[in-house]
Amino acid sequence: MESSPTSSGYHILIDQIGHLLVEGRRKAAQSVNTILVHTYWEIGRYIVEYEQKGNERAEYGTQLFERLSKDLTLQYGKGFGRSNLFQIRNFYIKFQKVQTLSGKLTWSHYVEILKSDSDLEISFYAKQCEKERWSVRELKRQMKSMLFHRLALSKDKEGVMKLANEGHIIERPEDLLKDPFVLEFLNIPIHHSYLESELEDKIISQLQQFVMELGNGFAFIGRQYRMSIGGRHFRVDLLFYHRILKCFVLIDLKRGEIDHQDVGQMKLYLNYFKKEENTEGDNSQ
Prior knowledge:
Largest sheet: 3 strands, antiparallel
Number of helices: 12
Number of strands: 3
Radius of gyration: 26 Å
Strand order of the largest sheet: 1-2-3
Structural class: mainly alpha
Strand content: 5-15%
C-alpha cells in the first residue's frame, strides 16, 4: 500500500530533502565565495606584476586604474570601478601567499579587514574572524571597538606578534581580559547615571552581543546566582562557564571603582565555587 502524503513517513521524506537542499545551497554559496576571493586575488596579482614591469607604471600612474576600470566594465559589466580595482590590488599586496586566504571569509570580510591601519591588525582580524565565525556586521563592530588594540595593551612585543599571527588564544585566566570592554550595544547614554540592576537588565536583554564581546568560549549559566555561605545568602550578578579554561567566571557589576571590600567579597565567592560548585576537571583560577 502506498503511503499517504499526510503520513509521518512522507513528512520525514520532506525533512530529509529539505536538509539536503539547505546543506547543498550552503556548500554551493561557500564554493562560489571561495572562487570569487581567489579570482580577485589572481586579478590583484596580475595588476601588481604588470605594474612591476616598470614602463607602464611610470607612464600611466593612477591612469592605469581608470583605463582598466573603463575597459573591464565595457567587456564584463559592473564590479570594476576604480576604487574596487585599488582594493583588489591591495588585497594581493597584503595577502601575497594564497595559502593564507580563508575559505570561511567572504570578499566583504576582506574589504573590511583591509581598512585596518597596520599589517598586524590585518593579520589579527583575518585570523580572529575565521576562528569566531564573525559576520561582516560583527567584524565591523569589533574593528570599530579597536579589539586588537584592547587586547594588545596587556602584551609585550612578542605577545603582540603572536596575537597578530595566531589570533586571540585563550590559555590563561588573564587572556579573558580586555581593556576596556566595549558595550555600546546596550545603548546607555554617556552621562546617564544608571543603577547596577539596570545595567544587568540591559546586559541580559542583549546577552548574545555581550557574550560575543566577552570572547570565545563563554557559556551563560544564570543571573543573580544564589550562594549560601556561613548561614548567609549571597548572589553574584552574572555567572558564566568558560569551556576552554574549564572554570566558572563570576561577574559582579559595580557603578564606581572597586574597593577592598569588593575584592574581599569576590574572593569569598570564588572560594565558595572552589569548594561547593567545582566538579572533577574544573579549574579554580
